[in-house]
Amino acid sequence: MNYSGVTQGSYFSITYFDEDGRRFENEIDSIFEAVDNSVSLWNENSIIRRVNRNEDVVVDQIFKDNFEWSRKASEFSGGAFDATIGPLVSAWGFHYKKELEMTPEMVDSIRQLVDYRKIEIVNDKVVKANPNMTLDFNAVAQGYTADLVGKLLETNGIYNYLVDVGGEIMARGTKPNGEQWVIGIERPAENFDSERSVQIRLNLKDKGIVTSGNYRKYIEKDGVRYSHSIDPKSGYPAPQNLLSATVIAENATWADCLASVCMLVGRDKAIELLEHEKDVEAYFIYVEDGKIKTSTHRLKTPQLTD
Description:
This protein folds into 2 domains: 47-128, ApbE-like superfamily (T-fold); 141-304, ApbE-like domains (T-fold, Roll). The chain has 8 helices and 15 strands. It has helices at residues 25-39, 47-52, 61-76, 86-92, 104-111, 141-155, 252-265, 267-274, and strands at residues 2-7, 10-16, 119-122, 125-128, 161-165, 168-172, 181-186, 198-204, 207-213, 218-221, 224-227, 242-249, 281-288, 291-297, 303-304. The chain is globular and about 60 Å long.
């Protein structure tokens, strides 16, 4: 069975195998709607938008899950990953693509609103140290959604599926002929609108896989590109030579978090951090001496190159 469409500002594609031929479009759409109503920054009435506006709102389980996964990633990365990064992301123009007019004084001022340790959930309500603090779960929500859809299928006895939500993928089991799922990793593009091509293909089974890259998500001013990965400590786009990081983990949520962490800290620090995650694999594309290079970290999956 195949089901595809648009959700969370991107595409989704779901393939699964069921001998009874059952279809779950309504249930899947309900998951997308629930996630959108909880943690989407593009939904004016979502819980996260209401929290960011300091409205009196009780958060749901989806919100709490995204909050906890974000906190786990923050602690894992020593604060490089921070869900309170929203004010800086908005100021730099990545939420709404506004004109870039940042100054050092503005960065220093806004940076005071960024610290995941100063926001918590108490009795199902968000408590902030500063009311101007906001939350952003964009580095978690799509991977989390892919996992939710996967859990729905498994609840119905389906254990052979591929769920792709905006490039955040969860793969379980195999195809009917026993072949593993094959995932293509995009070759870094020169510009955000460049034609897409495949750098490498990987076999995947019972894992989540997510690629985060800076070559399509950027804004440009006076000929300078600014990465969408913001360093919460400096307040500026993360300055490192990593073009993309592909992470394979036990689920798509954690893979989503870790891919973002890698882009924030750079290849060398990413490898150091991933040493603490024994079941995590990674594939890096980076620039060194003016050339695009690749490296892997504990990558055990068979690699199928072009």
